[in-house]
Structure formats: structure tokens, C-alpha cells
Prior knowledge:
The protein has one helix and three strands, in the order βββα. It is of the alpha+beta class.
Amino acid sequence: MKKEKPFVPIEFHISTVADDKGPFGILSVRTTGGRLEIALDSEATVALLDAVARLQAKIDERR
């Protein structure tokens, strides 16, 4: 089975919007495979930042 190549991020954009439940963020990522848009509430944003920090630490370990 052939392994697919990962999508490579090319461009990031952020914005905020609000609805009747309050504000949330939109993370828009343009990749080699197309655009990915993710809606994030405050809790999801904290979880994403934590995951990115752990990923950065692992990358730094290998330098």
C-alpha cells in the first residue's frame, strides 16, 4: 500500500466571529491539498496551543 504524502501548510490566517453562544476563532490553513478551516472555542484553542507546544519541544529535542 502506497503511503500518501502529507499536506504541507503554506499559509495561515485567523479571525474571530460571534454567534448567540459567544465568540470563537477560525483558524484557516491553506495547504498543498487545499484549504482547511477549523472553528475553535476557548477550550479548543488552549488544547491546540498545548499540542503545538509539545510538538515544538519534540522537534527541538531532535536538533
